[in-house]
Amino acid sequence: MAIIIISNLTKKFKNKKALDDINIEFLPGKIYGIFGNNGAGKTTLLDSIAHLLIPTTGEILVDDHKLGKHSKEKISFMIASGFELSRVKDFIFWYEYFFEDFDSDEALLMLKKYDISLKERVSELSKGTQEKLSVILAISRKTEVYIFDEPLTGVDPVDRIEILDLILSKSTPETTIILSTHLISETERIIDTAVFMKEGKIILNKETDEIRDETGLSIDQYYKELYKKC
Ligand SMILES: Nc1ncnc2c1ncn2[C@@H]1O[C@H](COP(=O)(O)OP(=O)(O)OP(=O)(O)O)[C@@H](O)[C@H]1O
């Protein structure tokens, strides 16, 4: 059974439709890649699931519940802002305080591995290191859904492999991972289902193995072919 069911979801910013009648279900045990050109609506979709945005119309159900306290316990997502004055240790403290399922020992081990000091001001870290911190905080929670919006953009190619492996380590038959990225060729090895978005709509939602078998192309090649045409 789907853990997330989205029905007729539309999100407007003033008169602009960022999401246009989205219908999609996310299953446990799967890793979803959300791909699309700039402005396609990827972040708006992920922020809507994380309840950071309120839909204009439509519905999002998580584990059969409307978004709220229950979905907050089920979903862990990367934070992308609020870094201004805080130090790394403040984030560890807040996560421990707000989330009973946060494993601070696991987070501290990963911070050590990536040489991220607890004393550092987050705003003074490089963009890539901020992204690593954000991924570490998100995966140190024990939830059923993990959402990563562009987790690799500023990360160097060697660490990208490790960050992807960290994300992959959260994959179990019970967890759902949703990842948005422009780095299709680097992420497609871990993606089970590719979701292509354009102008606020989902134009493809298919198993990656099926795409490769049917087209003989990698997901990256198929994406480029499809977006060249439309
Ligand atoms: N807070 C906002 N106010 C007004 N318009 C917004 C806002 N957030 C997003 N939009 C608009 O909604 C559309 C979808 O934006 P969104 O950030 O979801 O796209 P995206 O697929 O994540 O793009 P990118 O790949 O560039 O990050 C864009 O046209 C964007 O300008």
Descriptive report:
The strands form 2 sheets. The chain has a 6-stranded mixed β-sheet with strand order 6-7-8-3-9-10, with helices on both faces. A 4-stranded antiparallel β-sheet has the order 2-1-4-5. It has one domain: 3-Layer(aba) Sandwich (Rossmann fold), CATH 3.40.50.300. It contains 9 helices and 10 strands. It has about 230 residues and is an alpha/beta fold. The protein is about 35% helix and about 25% strand. It binds adenosine-5'-triphosphate. Adenosine-5'-triphosphate (ATP) binds next to β2 and α1. Keywords: ATP-binding, Nucleotide-binding. Pfam families: ABC_tran.
Q: What is the topology?
A:
Layout: E1 4-13, E2 16-26, E3 31-36, H1 42-49, E4 57-62, E5 65-66, H2 69-74, E6 75-77, H3 88-98, H4 104-113, H5 127-139, E7 145-149, H6 157-168, E8 176-180, H7 184-187, E9 193-198, E10 201-207, H8 208-215, H9 219-229
Parallel strand pairs: 3-8, 3-9, 6-7, 7-8
Antiparallel strand pairs: 1-2, 1-4, 4-5, 9-10
Protein name: ABC transporter, ATP-binding protein
Pfam families: ABC_tran
GO molecular function: ATP binding; ATP hydrolysis activity
